[in-house]
Specification:
Length: about 800
């Protein structure tokens, strides 16, 4: 049936795009104006080629036999050249082409790509027409009188396999074929539109709808996985992250308190019970999975998987490196992703993985076994699974705190919905993302996204997908979740602490749990009052309280500088004391019959540091009857959110901007009203506007700080030198320097020792002719110093830009 005549019959108007894409022998054709969805995949390019007998039109590159080609193979005739004409026109449902191809019944046409093929004398040989019908498409091919072969054959290939083959005789009146090339793809298989097909390889009936969406209905149960050949086996996965539990059938539970619970017990592994203990972190009203216990009933053995990658067997620390150990029949191993415990009984295997944030429990084996505990199913009652032996007194108390005004629940919900998008969408058909999205959205609406909390839900989903043989790759770099979720490996905190990110955002430290710290924060104290007994005074400070205020206990001393604090390695409490024998510079005063002993805890004076310090000054009064803390409050503010400098370099005139951010992803700009702390990490982006980054690159040559506005001050501190970080300051990083017309670097805020007032940051920049990354400074990994000069600076007119902060 003449396809163009059909179009003319159903269209009210025609718009021809003067594409003028012509080719001889072969060609790549841009069909962006009228893309084609070929058996479920959308393409905006086609590739045409000729050999001695065949002409090919492909969508994913030139045709190669044996490759996974999406192509249409045709008899060649004498065709050697061709062109493209794109027609934009509406083809409503109910037209002649819809009656001819009933699967198009719900899809109207939008446009047609017309590709006429001619011989060497420019005579018409045949014509290919690709019609866009939304999520569907058709291919029409007709021959002209110049076609020499008696028979004309076409084949549509999908993934290199022949899908539809048609033959017609060219001497008949109807010199053409029309083929519906609509369909769906799922796990490498192709399905025609509006069909339901049984696929034993995935144990499912797959329905392909008119929108190119394939929906499988599996014969496997919710805790089973298809092994191929219509064979289902048990594969139960439970994910516990934060206070949420996604059970083996995909239902969501939430633990509101800080008690111990039975997570999983399997009917076919009766000796095993997996337990979990929950604790608060930064907020009292949000709990986190703190440790996982593998309990062996017959031997009454507890293998505890804890924070920092520590493993305890009945409260005794197990020495564990990268090698695997077998403990009471349980294989225990440790790697950079966390700790794994594995136990096998009969035909079943249970694997428990814990990275300090998220636990994933998986049971595989034969069919027909039941799972109990919070990982079991939605009918589980929380109170019935509570383990009193793991639950401290008062753990069931539920706290309420004011909402965090910095949290935008709409934004966090948008973040969590990335699990429905690429690259995660490849897993959506085998692992339902909805419970992970719900857990993510509800948790992040109450708790800040610090400590990588926003990424751990994505990490949990990605790992669950890998268990189902679907690897989600590249997501960490794509959505800026660079840190591994086991970043606190080998960082062991006390019972009243948890491992989290320091306020500078680049260091993992032990921070105070909210309930423990709530006794001290309202009064701005760092520990218990002074204890006086037998002419001895002892003051105990909490290391985590000092840490969160940016105070290193190593810089504290009493009146006598030789008297320093002693830290308990288990509790991280720091003790200062003096007595009659070792007075530590104590001042003794008599008030009638009463003798008062008085001392002070303070930081070293400025001469003990370099020219800068990242510690606030401390002055704590110590006596036998009172302790009055007096901590100098130091709020640092960036004076300007951004600085823009117009510069001239040779013939080039351009704008150089410097912008300050508080986060690594550079989403949150620091404003003059933003309060920052000493030691807090800031991120500075430098960018050139007005030049071509295909030709030039921006090189940050050097950055330094002074206490006065002049960049030539003798008192200065280097941050970047010769394009590389200051090797003596481990907080400095430099990224993308010399690659394009933007670069950024970061460092932790400081002040000049013993000086108050403004601090001025100066940066010298150069333009460089970009030739195969020749502008990138070469920094030695060990010393981080520059090894060689760059020869391609545009000229010697460097740019200088200055920004300041104050306190």
């Amino acid at each position: 049936m003449p396809w163009l005549k059909l179009l003319s019959a159903v269209s009210l108007f025609t718009v021809c795009l003067a594409v003028n894409q012509e080719f001889i022998n072969s060609g790549e054709i841009d069909i962006t104006a009228c893309p084609i969805t070929y058996y479920g995949l959308k393409y905006d390019k086609v590739y045409v080629d000729f050999d001695s007998n065949t002409s090919t039109l492909c969508f994913n590159g030139q045709y190669q036999s044996g490759q996974n080609s999406d192509c249409i193979l045709m008899s060649r005739g004498s065709a050697v050249r061709g062109a493209l004409i794109t027609l934009i026109r509406d083809i409503p449902t109910g037209s002649g082409i819809h009656r001819l191809l009933p699967n198009l019944i719900k899809q109207s046409g939008n446009c047609v790509n017309v590709i006429p093929l001619r011989d060497g004398q420019d005579s018409d040989v045949k014509q290919i027409e690709l019609g866009n019908f939304g999520a569907q498409a058709i291919v029409a091919i007709k021959t002209h009188s110049g076609f020499s072969d008696e028979n004309f054959e076409t084949q549509t290939l999908v993934n290199g396999e022949s899908f539809v083959r048609q033959v017609f005789h060219t001497n008949k009146t109807n010199k053409g074929v029309v083929t519906d090339v609509s369909g769906c793809r799922l796990f490498g298989a192709v399905y025609k539109t509006n069909t339901s097909v049984w696929n034993a390889d995935i144990c499912s009936t797959v329905t392909c709808d008119e929108f190119g969406v394939a929906t499988p209905v599996s014969t496997c149960g919710p805790m089973e996985r298809c092994q191929g050949n219509n064979t289902c086996t048990l594969d139960a996965i439970c994910t516990v992250t934060g206070s949420t539990i996604i059970d083996v059938v995909g239902q969501l539970h939430t633990v509101p308190d800080r008690c111990g619970y039975k997570l999983m017990q399997h009917a076919s592994i009766p000796d095993l019970e997996v337990q979990g203990v929950f604790q608060e972190r930064r907020r009292k009203d949000v709990s986190f999975l703190d440790r996982v216990i593998v309990h062996l009933k017959s031997s009454n053995v507890d293998i505890s998987l804890e924070q920092g990658g520590r493993v305890k067997v009945n409260d005794k620390v197990l020495s564990l490196n990268t090698s695997e150990k077998v403990v009471h029949g349980v294989k225990v191993s440790k790697d950079p992703t966390g700790i794994t415990a594995e136990i096998t009984a009969s035909d079943y295997t249970a694997s428990i993985h814990f990275n300090g944030y998220t636990a994933q429990i998986r049971v595989t084996g034969s069919k027909g076994a039941s799972v109990f505990g919070l990982c079991g199913n939605a009918s589980t009652i929380l109170a019935e699974e509570k383990n009193s032996g793991l639950s401290e007194s008062g753990c069931e108390t539920v706290y309420k705190e004011d909402a965090d005004v910095s949290i935008n629940c709409n934004e966090t919900a948008k973040w969590c919905n990335v699990l429905r998008q690429q690259p995660f969408s490849a897993c959506n058909l085998v692992m339902d993302p909805e419970p992970f999205i719900s857990a993510c959205s509800s948790s992040l609406c109450k708790y800040p996204t610090t400590d990588g909390f926003d990424c751990q839900f994505l990490e949990g989903y990605s790992r669950a997908c890998s268990m189902q043989k679907v690897n989600v790759t590249g997501w960490k770099s794509q959505i800026k979740c660079g840190k591994t979720q086991a970043s606190c490996q080998d960082k062991y905190c006390s019972v009243h602490e948890f491992c989290g990110e320091k306020y500078n955002g680049w260091e993992s430290v032990c921070l105070c749990r909210a309930i423990f710290a709530s006794k001290y924060r309202p009064t701005n104290t760092f520990g218990e009052p002074t204890v006086c007994k037998d002419h001895k005074a002892t003051l105990t400070l909490a290391g985590c309280l000092l840490e969160e205020n940016g105070i290193d206990y190593n810089v504290l001393h009493m009146n006598n500088e030789s008297c320093v604090g002693q830290i308990d390695n288990e509790t991280h409490m720091v003790k200062f004391s003096f007595d009659k024998t070792n007075t530590c510079g104590t001042v003794v005063k008599s008030n009638g019959s009463k003798i008062n002993y008085h001392n002070t805890i303070k930081t070293w004076n400025s001469s003990n540091f370099g020219i800068i310090t990242r510690h606030e000054e401390v002055h704590l009064d110590v006596s036998c009857h009172y302790m009055q803390p007096s901590v100098k409050s130091l709020a640092i503010r960036i004076k300007e959110s951004s600085v823009i400098q117009e510069l001239v370099s040779g013939q080039w005139r351009y704008n150089l901007s410097m912008i300050v951010y508080s986060d690594e992803a550079r989403r949150h700009t620091v404003t003059p009203d933003t309060e920052l702390d000493l030691g807090q990490r800031i991120y500075i982006e430098m960018e050139v506007d007005g030049l071509d980054d295909n030709v030039l690159s921006l090189v940050v040559d050097s950055c330094w700080a002074t206490s006065v506005p002049s960049p030539k001050s003798t008192l200065k501190y280097s941050i970047v030198g010769n394009g590389c970080p200051n090797p003596s300051d481990k907080s400095v990083t430099v990224i993308n320097n010399g690659l394009k017309l933007s670069s950024y670097f970061s460092f932790s805020l400081f002040q000049f020792s013993g000086r108050a007032g403004n601090i001025y940051l100066h940066c010298k920049t150069m333009l460089c002719v970009n030739q195969e990354n020749s502008c990138v400074p070469k920094c030695d990994q060990s010393s981080r110093s520059r090894r060689s000069a760059m020869p391609n600076y545009l000229d010697q007119n460097s740019g200088l830009i200055t920004m300041a902060w104050r306190h």
